[in-house]
Design goal:
The complex is a heterotrimer of chains A (382), B (362) and C (270).
Chain A: E1 22-31, E2 34-44, E3 49-53, H1 60-68, E4 75-80, E5 83-84, E6 95-98, H2 110-119, H3 125-138, H4 154-166, E7 172-176, H5 184-201, E8 204-209, H6 212-218, E9 221-226, E10 229-234, H7 236-241, H8 246-251, E11 256-262, E12 273-277, E13 285-288, E14 298-303, E15 309-311, E16 319-330, E17 334-342, E18 345-352, E19 367-372, E20 378-381
Parallel strand pairs in A: 3-8, 3-9, 6-7, 7-8
Antiparallel strand pairs in A: 1-2, 1-4, 4-5, 9-10, 11-12, 11-14, 12-13, 14-20, 15-19, 16-17, 16-19, 17-18
Helix pairs in contact in A: 2-3, 2-4, 3-4
Chain B: H1 2-29, E1 32-33, E2 40-41, H2 48-53, H3 58-62, H4 65-93, H5 101-129, H6 133-136, H7 142-175, H8 181-193, H9 196-207, H10 212-220, H11 233-258, H12 261-269, H13 274-285, H14 287-302, H15 306-311, H16 319-328, H17 333-361
Antiparallel strand pairs in B: 1-2
Chain C: H1 6-29, H2 46-53, H3 55-88, H4 95-107, H5 110-123, H6 130-154, H7 158-166, H8 171-200, H9 203-208, H10 216-224, H11 230-269
Classes of the chains: A alpha+beta (382), B mainly alpha (362), C mainly alpha (270).
Chain lengths: 382, 362, 270
């Protein structure tokens, strides 16, 4: 998961001259007493693959349905390509949606499903056939054109739904948990297919998902949502490596969170360095932060288990803790060690299993050392 | 725009052909019979206010509506008393031990007796305090009151009989191998699509004095002379059970079919005999189906007309039949309307209870 | 699977014998030679011939079919609209009254429905005849149609309609090209139910039919009051035959389509 993208040239969100394709301006949505979206402002740029990520009930689906036109914002406005789309009914929006249930029309064939939207556009009749054939080719469904939805497999249905929503060449394609109904292996293959299709068509994609791995894989930017608010909007690597809150750090991947207080730095020290006192007896944790929190404030130190090294002998490193192995989770390629470094405080460390199991020397109850560099973790102040 | 039409068209249709006609029934039930066309007075022709001034409750007094209300109030009061008394009696009779069917029955009967005695006391006190109430419950023509009571009796007994016959059928259907079930289900539904009238008619030939049943019994030597079944209440019970059986079987079957077979196995595994497993597991779980089925039989039976008029005798009194005769034979529209209004009021309680049961089931 | 005990077998045998024997006897005796319906005097189809000669019955049958056709068609249109309004239109003024009026005729005794409609027709000065029976049957049948269609609409995946809107349909177009084809089986069974109810109805038709129009149930009822006759036996046999054939065909078709769908799904998954 989460490789930093080598071609980090596509970053319209960093370019102040770029005009966003979609702008949510102070959008609030209430259902009776329940507030699904609260005063949300968000820009999405053309050609982005934008992921809305969050647990169920966080408002991500409501946000998407407002883009499609099935819900109207209670307050605020949504601008698409310079037009306020609030009063535009769903059938007149240049937006198409791929439904979680796929919503394929059971009484129509695959061909007719894909042609459904085109027949209701101003496309001349003789071009519809060509367009449908192109979509069938794009999604490798040529053989199944005459079948009904219940005569094809789940993965094929998913592709029909995609082809149908892409057929009208919308400015914006919405995908509501598009891979949720597929099994894990198929899901991985399809993620890359989705990315290829997005790239080759140049369409802006907004995807709703609760699967963080999926969001990290496909998206150019991820918005983590919680309780109708945006917790963080950033590229996948930033979300993973530099979460801005304990919630995001905890929601994405596995993390160790250690609470402590910031110590006063000696004069002349590096202005970005931070020392966190987490135990009355142990050495403080040394870390760095662009804008260090004020001394004596309570902070959380977050560090990913794979950035914590484990060894039997005491290593030379900025941070070293000693402890006892309580548990080992063997996952094949890697093992996660649960190490108790202080009463009640367990730190997880991950190690790649480069040797066969019989050759490894760490086991339960072993006394070990954990270590990491001063830039490996993030300091989060609440 | 289209949404408005969508709602308005069926809405207006029902208002015009359902609600307004019922309003007219209500109005005519307050009018008096007259030798005119239409055969009642006053009408709108007399002017609206004269008409309103001419309305009265005479017909209701005539058919004994007061007594019906009093009976109603007594039943409701008894039910309330029962609900208050029953849990206490049960706790007193069977403290904390897991109670079986007979314990529950004993507690229920005791609570019922207590409730009835209480209601009787209340009635006695009321009669002593307000002698004027006497005239309210006075029944000038006993025919109608008897018809309500007898309809109620016939509906209750035939509902019980239908349950008795329908439950084993539904149970056996739910226990049948799963590839039989669609066929069995169709066999139960098929009579429902067949003409009601024809199914009732079929019994005339069977039950009459020279009918097939008597022929069979005579030839077997079980009876010496033909039985009189047709034109008695027994024939009415048979007719009701026969025509309404699918309404009882289907909801019970639906409830039993949903039930997991392993529940009964678990009960037997935990020490129940087959019979006690049925009483403690199957029967309680099929309760919503039983209640739904009972209402589905009871409600339409109460207003039944075809069965009593074809299979019943001249002494079979049912409200539906009385209403029909009042209207077509006596041409007394105001009284027929009043009978209809009271019948509807009586039906409201079971209908409301039925709907609550359905909602709770969902 | 639990064993199928002799008790269950017995209750099924007796139960179905009770349900079907009376009709079976009726059918057998419709082929009886003798006018005396209780004495078997040899096989004959002469009562069917006589029925064919009986103009009164044929006229009544024709009226009944006309009434059933028109009322069930009207009821299907109105009932489907009502169901759609109840399930999809959300909140509107008088929704409670509306749903009450849809459900009330289902439990209303027929004598009351008939009486109230008759009094209504007289009050507005409408001459009674085929037209008034059609109005009356439409009113109570539309409620049954609406219940059947509602249960289908409730289980209908609403995202199908949203997908149609999303792909450029107007709400009406979405209903016509997506919703209606999918709920069609329920609409058709609603129509069939309405048709049967109308064919079957005696009480409401008796109230709302004028002297000019007589339906088959009215005719049968007045004949039956005088006792069992072989002509009625023959007529009943024909009616039972038609219904049985219809129901069996319908259920075979549904079962075949269900089987095919299941096979297709297996093929797609495999």
């Amino acid at each position: 998961m989460a490789q930093p993208r080598p071609d980090a040239v596509f970053a319209p969100w960093d370019d102040p001259a770029e005009v966003p394709l979609i702008q949510f301006k102070n959008v609030t949505k209430r259902f009776g007493d329940f507030t699904a979206i609260e005063d949300l402002t968000l820009d999405i740029y053309a050609k982005e693959f934008f992921a809305l990520l969050g647990p169920s009930g966080c408002g991500k689906t409501t946000l998407m349905r407002m883009l499609a036109g099935f819900e109207k914002p209670t307050e605020g406005s949504i601008i698409l390509d310079g037009v306020d789309i609030g009063p535009v009914p769903p059938n007149e929006r240049p937006v198409n949606m791929m439904f979680q249930s796929y919503a394929l029309f059971p009484h129509l064939t695959v061909w007719e499903n894909i042609a459904f939207g085109l027949k209701r556009s101003d496309m001349p009749k003789d071009q519809i056939g060509d367009r449908v054939e192109r979509m069938l080719k794009l999604t490798q469904l040529g053989k199944f054109a005459k079948r009904k939805p219940h005569q094809i497999s789940g993965g094929q249905r998913q592709r029909v739904a995609l082809a149908r929503s892409l057929a009208k060449a919308p400015k914006l394609l919405l995908l509501d948990e598009p891979l949720g109904a597929l099994d894990k292996k198929l899901r991985h293959e399809t993620q890359f297919e989705l990315m290829d299709i997005q790239e080759s068509t140049g369409t802006t994609f907004v995807i709703v998902t609760h699967d963080q791995e999926e969001a990290m894989t496909v998206a150019s930017r991820v918005a983590v949502m919680v309780d109708g608010n945006l917790a963080q909007v950033a590229t996948p690597d930033q979300i993973y490596e530099a979460p801005t809150s304990a919630y995001v750090a905890d929601f994405i991947g596995d993390v160790n969170l250690i609470e402590g207080t910031v110590e006063v730095q000696p004069k002349g020290a590096d202005p970005t360095s931070v020392a966190i006192k987490w135990s009355p007896t142990e050495d403080p944790i040394k870390a760095t932060a662009d804008t260090p929190p004020p001394a004596a404030s309570t902070v959380q130190f977050a560090i990913r288990p794979e950035k914590v090294a484990i060894s039997a002998e005491k290593p030379e490193a900025a941070n070293v803790m000693e402890g006892k192995i309580l548990d080992i989770a063997y996952l094949g390629n890697i093992s996660t060690y649960h190490v108790e470094v202080a009463p009640g405080l367990i730190v997880k460390a991950q190690a790649t299993n480069t040797r066969r199991i019989s050759r490894r020397n760490l086991t339960w109850e072993d006394h070990v050392y954990l270590s990491w560099t001063d830039t490996a973790g993030v300091v989060l102040s609440e | 725009m289209s949404r408005k039409v969508l709602i308005l068209l069926p809405y207006v249709w029902l208002l015009v052909f359902f609600l307004v006609p019922f309003g007219i029934v209500l109005k005519i039930s307050l009018s008096d019979i007259a030798l005119a066309i239409p055969p009642y007075t006053p009408t709108l022709k007399d002017g609206f206010w004269t008409m309103v001034a001419g309305l009265d409750l005479e017909n209701y007094a005539f058919i004994g509506a007061g007594a019906v209300f009093a009976g109603f109030a007594a039943i409701v009061l008894s039910a309330v008393m029962f609900r208050i008394v029953y849990p206490r009696v049960r706790r007193a009779l069977v403290p904390d031990t897991p109670n079986g069917f007979f314990d529950t029955a004993a507690a229920a009967l005791t609570a019922l007796a207590v409730a009835l005695v209480n209601v009787a006391l209340v009635v006695a006190v009321l009669a002593l305090l307000f002698p004027a109430l006497q005239s309210f419950v006075d029944v000038p023509d006993f025919l109608y009151f008897a018809a309500y009571l007898s309809s109620l009796k016939i509906a209750l007994i035939s509902t019980f009989l239908t349950l008795l016959i329908g439950y084993p059928i539904a149970y056996a259907m739910a226990r049948a191998p799963s590839h039989w079930r669609p066929t069995l289900l169709m066999l139960v539904i098929l009579p429902f699509w067949t003409s009601f009238l024809i199914r009732v008619y079929a019994w005339i030939g069977i039950l009459s004095t020279e009918g097939y049943l008597n022929q069979l019994l005579l030839s077997l030597g079980i009876i010496g002379e033909p039985l009189t079944i047709l034109n008695t209440n027994i024939a009415v019970y048979i007719g009701i059970v026969y025509t309404y059986l699918p309404f009882m079987v289907l909801p019970i079957y639906a409830a039993l079919e949903k039930m997991d077979d392993s529940l009964v196995e678990a009960a037997e595994d935990l020490g129940c005999t087959a019979l006690s497993a049925f009483w403690l597991v199957t029967a309680p779980l099929s309760k919503p189906g039983i209640i739904a089925g009972c209402f589905l039989v009871f409600i339409p039976t109460l207003g039944e007309f075809v069965i009593p008029s074809l299979l019943g005798g001249s002494d079979t009194l049912m409200i539906g039949k009385v209403l029909w005769e009042e209207f077509f034979n006596n041409r007394d529209w105001p009284v027929a309307s009043a009978v209809a209004v009271i019948l509807l009021l009586i039906l409201i309680i079971p209908i409301v209870l039925f709907q609550r049961n359905q909602e709770a089931d969902q | 699977m639990r064993r199928f005990s002799w008790f269950n077998a017995t209750s099924l045998t007796f139960g179905f014998a009770f349900l079907y024997l009376p009709m079976l006897i009726l059918i057998i005796y419709s082929f009886n030679e003798s006018r005396l319906v209780t004495v078997w005097a040899g096989f004959s189809t002469k009562w069917y011939g006589e029925l064919w000669q009986n103009d009164a019955f044929l006229d009544a049958a024709w009226v009944t079919i006309k009434v059933a056709f028109w009322s069930s068609t009207l009821a299907t249109v109105l009932g489907t609209m009502a169901a759609y309004a109840m399930v999809r239109a959300g909140r509107f003024k008088g929704r409670g009254l509306f749903s009450g009026m849809i459900y009330a005729p289902l439990v209303m005794p027929e004598v009351i429905t008939g009486l109230s409609l008759l009094l209504f027709f007289i009050a507005i000065g409408l001459d009674r005849g085929v037209f008034t029976i059609v109005l009356a049957h439409t009113t109570f049948a539309m409620c049954y149609v609406s219940v059947v269609v509602t249960s289908r609409l409730v289980s209908f995946d609403q995202s199908l309609e949203e997908a149609a809107l999303d792909l450029g349909c107007t709400p009406f177009d979405a209903f016509r090209s997506v919703t209606l084809p999918i709920i069609m089986p329920a609409v058709i069974s609603g129509w069939l139910l309405a048709f049967t109810l109308s064919l079957d109805d005696l009480v409401i038709a008796s109230f709302t039919a004028g002297p000019s129009a007589t339906t088959l149930p009215i005719k049968i009822f007045s004949a039956v009051r005088l006792g069992v006759t072989p002509e009625i036996n023959a007529l009943s046999t024909i009616m039972i035959g038609i219904v049985t054939l219809g129901v069996i065909t319908a259920s075979l078709i549904t079962r075949a389509t269900a089987k095919k769908a299941a096979a297709d799904e297996r093929a797609a998954a495999g």
